[in-house]
Amino acid sequence: MLDPSAARERAAALVERARRAGADAADVAYIADSSEGIQVRLGKLEDVERSESEYIALRAFVGRSSASIGSSDLGDAALDELAVRVVAMARLAPEDTYAGLAPAERLATGPLPDLALVDAAEPGPADLRALAEAAEAAAREVPGVTNSEGAGASAGRSVFALATSHGFAGAYESTSRSLSASVIAGEGGGMQRDYAWRSARHAADLPSPDAIGRQAGDRAVQRLGPGRLASGSMPVVFAPRVGGSLVGHLLGAMSGAAIARGASFLLGREDEQLFDSAVTILDDPLRPRGLRSRPFDGEGLATAPRALVEGGRLTGWLLNAAAARQLGLDPTGHAARGGGGAPGISASNTHIAAGQVSPEALMADIADGVYVTELIGQGVNGVTGDYSRGASGFRIVGGALAGPVAEFTIAGNLIEMFRALTPADDLEWHRTINVPTLRVDGMMVAGD
Predict the structure, then answer these.
(1) Distance in angstroms (rounded) separating the CA atoms of residues 231 and 431
(2) How high is the pLDDT of residue 447?
C-alpha cells in the first residue's frame, strides 16, 4: 500500500498519461485497504484473517463521452496501457449531457483539515486475540449465557487519493479498530442470541472488552422467554442501535441520483413539513475521528457540515456533479468513490439532534406499545416509502418495558413515520448514523 503522498503522485501521474493519450479531461481514484482480524470461540482461536487490496481507477472524457477502467497492477507499463485503452473506450461511448468533472471553482484548495483519522498504534495478532478472548470471556460469565458464537477483534488501515485534470490532487489515510461478541442464552428451543459490536478510528475510543462482552451477554439473557404481540396500531420506540436505519432510508431518498430518476418517495416534497419542527438532522464530514469523515469528496470538492433537515424541513438534496447538472443545482460535496465508474452519492457522519426528554419520559404515556431492538429483512420501498420489517424487542406496558417479544412485523409509510417521530435525549456518537431513542406513534404491528 502506498502512503498518501505517493498515492497522490501516482494518481496525478495517471491523469497525465490519460491526457497524453488524448483525453480532454480525466480523474483518477486510488483506493487501498489492509486489515487483520482474529476470531475466537469458546476460548480457542477459530480464525485469522489478513487482507490487502490496492486499486486505481481512471475515468477519461472525450467531449461529453466518457469511460472508466481500473487495475490492481500499478506498474508503469500497466498504467500506460490503461490510459490508452480508456481513451479508446471513451471515443466509442455515447455522449452524456451531464457527464464531466466537478466545477473547478468548487474544488478544495489549501491545506486539508486534520481530522485525526489515524491511530498510530498498530495492534499485532496477539493483541487482537487477547481483546477477543477477553470480550468472549466476559460475555460467557453473564448468568444465563450457555454458548458462544464467538468474539472478534480487527484492525485496518486505508488510503484514498484523488487527482483530476483540472487542478485537484489530494489524499488522506485512516485506520479502523473493532471489537465484537455474540453469545447464546438459554437451552433447547428457548435459546436466544444477541451481540455487541463497536467500531472506531482509534482503539482508545472503543469500550473495554469486558464492557462489550457484558453487553452482549446481558442482551442475550434479556431476550429469553419472548412473548407474542397482538396485532394493532400502537407506538413503536426504536432503540438507538436500530433507529439509525430510519435516517438511512431518508438519506437514500435524498440522493440527487434518485431524485433525477424520479425514484424517491421525497420527490415533490421539498417544501413540506416532513418532521416535527423540533427535529434537526445534521451531516458532518469534518467530525474528528468520525467513521465517515473526509476532507474532500469523491470529486475533489471541499466538504463542510450541513443541516439536512432543519425545523423539520429538508434543506435540499445530496448531489454529486452529474446529479447537480441534471437538476440545475450546485453539487453539495457528497460525491463518493467506491472504485471504478462514475462517482456515487453518500452522506458522511449523520445524526438526529437530541430531543428534550429522557427515554423513560418518552415512553411514560404509552399504555401499550413496543420497544424494538432488532430489525429483520429489507421490506422498504424507496419509491413509495412503504415500510414493513420483521422485528423483536420488548413490550411497553403502562409506560415501562414489560418483557421480551419476538416474531412480529412493524409497518407504515416513511412519510407518515417521519411526521410522527419524536427523539429522546440519549444521543449516541459511535456509529456512522447516530440517533437517540426514537418514538413513532401510530405504526401497524402484526403479531398474533
Answers:
(1) 32
(2) 87
Q: For the chain, which domains are there?
A: 4-221 (3.30.2290.10), 225-245+354-446 (no CATH), 267-349 (no CATH)
Minimal CA–CA distance to 285: which of 253, 333, 343, 243?
Answer: 333
- Going by C-alpha positions, the residue among 61, 58, 59 that lies closest to residue 96 is 61
Flag whether pLDDT at 262 surpasses 80: yes
Looking at every residue in the chain, the average pLDDT score rounds to: 96
Determine how β-strand 350-352 pairs with β-strand 433-434: parallel
Q: Looking at residue 167, what is its pLDDT?
A: 92
User: How many other C-beta atoms lie within 10 A of the C-beta of residue 256?
Assistant: 26
Q: Is 112 exposed, middle or buried (0-12, 13-18, 19+ CB in 10 A)?
A: middle
Question: How far is residue 288's CA from residue 117's CA, in Å, rounded to a whole number?
Answer: 7
Q: What is the pLDDT of residue 154?
A: 98
The grid coordinates of residue 237 equal 420506540
Q: Which residues are within 8 A (CB) of 262 and not within 5 positions of it... i.e. 6 or more apart?
A: none
Model pTM above 0.90: yes
Q: In this structure, is the dihedral angle defined by the CA atoms of residues 269, 270, 273 and 274, taken in order, positive or negative? A: positive
Q: Are strands 306-310 and 368-376 parallel, antiparallel or unpaired?
A: unpaired
Residues 6+ apart with CB under 8 A from 258: 252, 264, 382
Q: How far apart are the C-alpha atoms of 226 and 194, rounded to whole Å? A: 13
Joined grid coordinates for residue 43: 476460548
25-41 and 44-62 beta bridge pairing: antiparallel
Nearest to 135 by CA among 200, 182, 77, 185: 182
**Looking at 109-113, 215-219, 393-397, which range is the least confident one?**
109-113
**Helical (H) or strand (E) element with 185:** strand 169-185
Neighbours of 234 (CB within 10 A): 20
Of 330, 320, 183, 328, which is closest to residue 257 (Cα–Cα)? 320
What is the C-alpha to C-alpha distance for residues 58 and 292, in angstroms, rounded to an integer?
A: 23
Residue 355 CB partners (closer than 8 Å, separation 6+) = 278, 362, 422, 423, 424, 425, 436
Q: Are 236 and 446 in contact (CB under 8 A)?
A: no
Whether residue 339 is predicted with pLDDT greater than 80 in this model: the reply is no
Q: How, if at all, do strands 281-283 and 350-352 pair?
A: antiparallel
Interatomic CA distance for residues 365 and 363, integer angstroms: 6
- Place 340 in a pLDDT band, splitting at 50, 70 and 90: confident
